[in-house]
Amino acid sequence: xxxxxxxxxxxxxxxxxxxxxxxxxxxxxxxxxxxxxxxxxxxxxxxxxxxxxxxxxxxxxxxxxxxxxxxxxxxxxxxxxxxxxxxxxxxxxxxxxxxxxxxxxxxxxxxxxxxxxxxxxxxxxxxxxxxxxxxxxxxxxxxxxxxxxxxxxxxxxxxxxxxxxxxxxxxxxxxxxxxxxxxxxxxxxxxxxxxxxxxxxxxxxxxxxxxxxxxxxxxxxxxxxxxxxxxxxxxxxxxxxxxxxxxxxxxxxxxxxxxxxxxxxxxxxxxxxxxxxxxxxxxxxxxxxxxxxxxxxxxxxxxxxxxxxxxxxxxxxxxxxxxxxxxxxxxxxxxxxxxxxxxxxxxxxxxxxxxxxxxxxxxxxxxxxxxxxxxxxxxxxxxxxxxxxxxxxxxxxxxxxxxxxxxxxxxxxxxxxxxxxxxxxxxxxxxxxxxxxxxxxxxxxxxxxxxxxxxxxxxxxxxxxxxxxxxxxxxxxx
Length: 478
What we know:
Layout: H1 2-11, H2 18-27, H3 33-36, H4 39-61, H5 63-74, H6 77-106, E1 121-127, H7 133-142, E2 151-157, H8 164-175, E3 179-183, H9 190-200, E4 205-209, E5 213-215, H10 219-229, E6 233-242, H11 249-271, E7 282-286, H12 287-298, E8 301-302, E9 305-306, H13 311-321, E10 325-336, H14 342-364, H15 377-406, H16 408-422, H17 424-433, H18 436-439, H19 441-452, H20 456-462
Helix pairs in contact: 1-2, 4-16, 4-19, 6-11, 7-8, 9-12, 11-17, 11-19, 12-13, 13-14, 14-15, 14-20, 15-16
């Protein structure tokens, strides 16, 4: 926390050296574990390995019990059916993983184009109850290495009840004509704030940035360069990493999860031109593509109710539907704050889960049609992979509850062994790119998610029609 605070103080000093500051900031992912980890963090990691090793030892010592359970399954119709289904799903997911691994290996980010080739760009920052965080965001954007005469910066206060508007005004005082600030007459939701920005934007490219995020100095130019090199590009996803990863245990775990989600999964999706979601933390859109779907997007409904969540996934879906490619830029880095407590985390995941359910239904309406030129197999495979996870979420939850009630030791021990095996890939992936010791949080996150967040997707499916941001009242003060 001390390291992060000192960096932010440098960033917002009167004459910051942004290039050196962000080099320090992003190098901080390779922190020295002993110096920066609290006793609680050390204890949690130690407990993680105790659990995993205990699970592995139990599986080894209970081989006879596992064989008996296996024989019972094989000798019953339902047990055999489940075994066949499990093996089939394992083969499918393993094949998809290997395919994604190949796509990741062939992925390469687009290098920034020269200043004279960069397009005019409108950056839109919607904010609600973010306090000083919005000031941090706006200053980092203004200090970007992007031609100032090509950059329009808009900030929109969505009816905040705290001092967000005050900090927008402070940023306006510092930046002058480079920043335009607006207030919504009342809180209408992030989608409406973005809609206002889209309608006022004059740039060829729209960039949306969350008001609790900090961009690297070259993020904007790297984010928009694919639009110049690829005329079929309709949207670009930024590379999101965790800003507050030294403040609490949950951000430490999420930091490793985000790296896996973005730098591996979105790299693979980008090789297919089919990134399924451009993140709210930092994303870019071709203006013509946005304006084409803007009426549908702002008036989108689900089961008769206005959609006030999942605006990023919805926009991505509608741009893919137009036949555009959606890419990922690993070199367009943005640091964002994530929940530090369980309540904020599960509410964020519920919102994401509901959005995924809704948008997968929408995607099903066009993905098997001739929605764009060129190969579409990879895009359809991505859709099927996500859809099967949604379809099987409730049956597997019920089955796992039944097995835990009937064979608790066998189920828990085999689950821990599975986590030890399958989470080793994200551990190795993160360790290779950043820090070996920090990578071990992938194991902790898998245990945490498996045993405390397993209910999220089934609950999101049952409540997919519900509206509400859920976390908007959980403002993060700095």
